């Protein structure tokens, strides 16, 4: 299996759109995105990830802590909408910039051939916050996470 | 002491600006805004208010639960910036619309005559969320809270 890069674009001055196709059916991708033990295997790009909270329902909170070579990084937010197996809307913030909150709308599209497209649109309060995220090295981290997700899905498909 | 109404305006399509003058020096107003036992006396407009969390520092969380005649309402957020006695930037969301997050920038201006002006600018992700807040009955609730704050300040001034 070759690992493809995510397609990243900026549909408006406060948004980032990320698109990536995965070689697994939608129910399987949903499982990898929502079971805490599986999330821990890919979200942190191979680094140790502690899923402190993952209350996957409207109003529930989530908090993940990544233990990487450059230190410990906490991320958290709250679920706005959860519609299995096709849609999650949640907020996202990094402890390093507390109170800077993006809204992430993630859609899982069943491509009908055993593959699934994930599209995530993140909306920021300001263009500056959006640009800060773009320049944070997110693209490299994202592709590492998605490559780890490919590996989780390959194991689930066996 | 007469109770004045807050001045509410919309400086941009995603913002609400609230301005109100209080008959107390800035240090006293800061105290009433930041000591949990005092916040509990005015924030809930006279309803019982439980201050579950109030970690008043950058990155800290807050969560207040109001017990009113129409039920129990939780509110929460995170502090982005805390600069005594003049400025707090924090996020705000209501449990009833989880994941809909406004950023509130509150400034305390010392008017030099024993009075203090509080200006709060709230920035929403979308115009629709801003309008939802405007039409939620916020103005009445706000004026009730600020009238309760007037009473707290009058007691502190004694």
Structural key phrases:
globular, about 160 residues, alpha+beta, eight-stranded antiparallel beta sheet, homodimer
Structural topology:
Two copies of one chain form a homodimer.
Chain A: E1 7-9, E2 15-22, H1 26-34, H2 36-42, E3 48-54, E4 61-68, E5 71-83, E6 87-94, E7 102-110, E8 116-123, H3 127-134, H4 138-157
Helix pairs in contact in A: 2-4
Summarize it:
The structure is a homodimer of 158-residue chains. Chain A is an alpha+beta fold and 158 residues long.
Order of helices and strands of chain A: EEHHEEEEEEHH
Provide the gyration radius of chain A in Å. 15 Å
> Largest beta sheet of chain A, briefly?
8 strands, antiparallel
As an assembly, this protein is: homodimer
Biggest contact: A-B, 21 and 21 residues
Question: Could you give the count of β-strands of chain A?
Answer: 8
Helix content of chain A: 25-40%
Helical/strand content category of chain A: alpha+beta
Which whole number gives the mean pLDDT of chain A?
A: 96
Tally of DSSP helical segments of chain A: 4
* Head-to-tail CA distance between termini of chain A: 14 Å
Shape of chain A: globular
Percent of sequence in beta strands of chain A: 35-45%
**Low-pLDDT stretches of chain A:** none
Strand order of the largest sheet of chain A: 1-2-8-7-6-5-4-3
């Amino acid at each position: 299996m070759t690992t493809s890069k995510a397609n990243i674009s900026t549909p408006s001055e406060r948004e980032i759109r990320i698109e990536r196709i995965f070689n697994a059916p939608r129910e399987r991708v949903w499982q990898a995105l929502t079971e805490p033990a599986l999330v821990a295997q890919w979200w942190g790009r191979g680094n140790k990830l502690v899923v402190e909270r993952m209350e996957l329902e409207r109003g529930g909170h989530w908090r993940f802590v990544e233990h990487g070579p450059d230190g410990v990084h906490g991320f958290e937010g709250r679920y706005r909408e959860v519609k299995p197996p096709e849609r999650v809307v949640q907020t996202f913030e990094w402890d390093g910039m507390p109170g800077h909150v993006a809204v992430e709308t993630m859609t899982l599209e069943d491509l009908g051939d055993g593959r699934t497209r994930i599209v995530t649109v993140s909306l920021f309060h300001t263009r500056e916050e959006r640009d800060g995220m773009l320049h944070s090295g997110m693209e490299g981290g994202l592709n590492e996470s998605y490559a780890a997700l490919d590996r989780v899905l390959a194991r689930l498909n066996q």
